[in-house]
Amino acid sequence: MCLLPTLLSVIQRQCSGGDSLFYPLSHKMVSMANTKHIYLTGFRGTGKTSVGALLARSLGRTVIDLDGVVTANAGKSISEIFQDGGEVAFRDLESDALASVSETENAVISLGGGAILRAGNRAIIRSTGVCVWLDCDAETIAHRLQQDDVSLEQRPALTELDELQEIRELLNVRDPLYQEAADHRLDTAGKTIEQVGDLVIEWLRGNASV
After folding, report:
1. pTM (2 d.p.)
2. Whether pLDDT at 147 is above 90
3. Backbone angles phi, psi at 187, to 5 degrees
4. Which of 33, 34, 113, 138 fits as disulfide partner to 167, beta carbons 3.0 to 4.6 Å?
């Protein structure tokens, strides 16, 4: 199923509002051949959305938040998707969205925390761009999520465990998959969004042709 028309309409709506998906070139622009996507992966609360927006401004690229594409395509919030169809339904929508956005060009794509669970998604990521894993310890993630009202309201629990234990259990499952998908790992604990963005750009300069 081709979702590009929907994706483009999402981008246009965002551009006409206050939270533009397009950013102008900046003084920090990196001299690169814009031929690949830059994917950001990692658990929720590691800074993917904020770092993605910063990178897009710095690199003169489009920024795409994959969860935003999923909810726009479904016409529902993430919680509603889970309530109506469970995690499998959400993952199906997520895979469809990733397949579509991967066909665009020169984007910074912030992935959902579980997008790497499916082998097909990891293959798309590896074949269409470079991937930076924003990592963080479970305790820091839990603290950040407690400060994030949007995450508390919209992100459904995936287990019956308490929040910190759930994060630890999910990280045990996901960390090897983040590692498989990623070209570079960056620990975001104790760092500002600007510091993380600078470190990503520094790595891109030295290691990636994007």
Report:
1. 0.80
2. no
3. -80, 120
4. 138
